[in-house]
Amino acid sequence: MNHSDLSVSCVSAYPERVVDDKSLTVSEPIAVDQDEPAWLSRGKIPSLHGLRALSILLVLIAHLAQHGILLPRTWHLTELGRLGVDMFFVISGFLITVLLLREHKKHQTISLKQFYLRRALRILPAYLCFLLGIAVMNSLGAVALSGRDWFGVLTYTVSFVPKPIWDIGHIWSLSVEEHFYLLWPIVMLCCPRRGWLVPLATIVTTPLMRWLIQEHVPALDASYCTLTRMDTIAVGCGLAYLAYWQPFRRILRLSARSAYLFSAALVLLVGLSQLTALRVPMYQLALHPLLVASAYATTIWLWTQHCQSHLGRLLNSKPAVWIGLLSYSLYLWQQPFLNPHGNAWFAQSPVNLVCIVVLALASYLLVERPLLEWKDHMTRQRSHRDSITAMAPST
């Protein structure tokens, strides 16, 4: 099939007649969806690492602009950080939901124990290293965390901490994701086929929650609270469900050329929405997050389908994949070193840039990658055991 054409079709397969000395057997027609992406059932999803790379670059550009390093301090650039985090959220919702749907389709259930173990191995070791680094900086007087800040970072509740210190302020987004990881697998285990109703309900009710918190709970920031940001992740979850729905794939069966034009229109739409949100607070509360998340979800779908196009190959190139793999460690470590109000020596250019790169590489190479390889090995062993069990004759 031509990778630039997302045509969706079902064909009827008629196996040849099988004749032996006892009977004549003719198989029934079997409907085969030739356009269902292979990654829905197995393997890595293409282009996600490249999109993660784009997300972390948006965050870094925003913080570099705030710090005044290399880039001018303009609101056009400093607002890119929110857009980068939104893309992280949509990717997380999409990826986790696809993985859970795969598991349920294969085993007719979801192992909460295995899910939480995989997430813990992916997230906690690098995060604990970051906390150790923050503790050292705090003991040296380079940063000053309050008791409330410490409670927030140790319990993944920074998204509920009013005005946390800059150096750990970015952990609000990781807190939101941890709350999602904690609750969403349970929801899918309880109602895997109707699970899509929960993202839909979240998308509908979250704007009201943003308004209620802004108007009646001023201590919380409606832009960073878990209760007000789940709709962005929910859009990614909804995309995962839609990916299994053939009519959706038929609607978005764009050629590679059309995908470029559609993506350009989405970029323009996000830009106009961002400008409107800065001027119309009610629009920011009600529609802006949903529109941006929907644009990102569409972008994810398009470039997972067109990974052989020029842009698709760029998103899947080795440099893009490497930055995507480093994105978690880069996100963790960039914040203390890009403090726009920091006077510590390590927050000054170019020392801060070197520190960010060195610490992110060390975190990935020495902590993340070995544990990820071990996790993948354990997953392969489990799959092998499942295959042997499935092949064993029943007694």
Helix and strand content put the structural class at mainly alpha
Q: Counting H and I runs of at least 4 residues, what is the number of helices?
A: 16
N to C succession of SSEs: EEEEHHHHHHHHHHHHHHHH
β-strand number? 4
- Rg from C-alpha positions? 23 Å
Count of structural domains: 1
User: Strand portion, in percent?
Assistant: under 5%
Compute the average pLDDT.
Answer: 86
Strand order of the largest sheet: 1-4
What does this structure look like?
There is one protein chain. The chain is mainly alpha-helical. It is built from 16 helices and four strands. It has helices at 48-67, 75-78, 80-107, 112-139, 147-155, 166-169, 171-190, 197-216, 226-243, 246-251, 256-279, 281-286, 288-305, 310-315, 318-337, 351-391; strands at residues 10-13, 18-19, 24-25, 30-33. The strands form two sheets. It has a two-stranded antiparallel sheet with strand order 1-4. The chain has a two-stranded antiparallel sheet with strand order 2-3. Helix 3 (80-107) runs parallel beside helix 7 (171-190) and helix 11 (256-279) packs antiparallel against helix 13. The radius of gyration is 23 Å and the shape is globular.
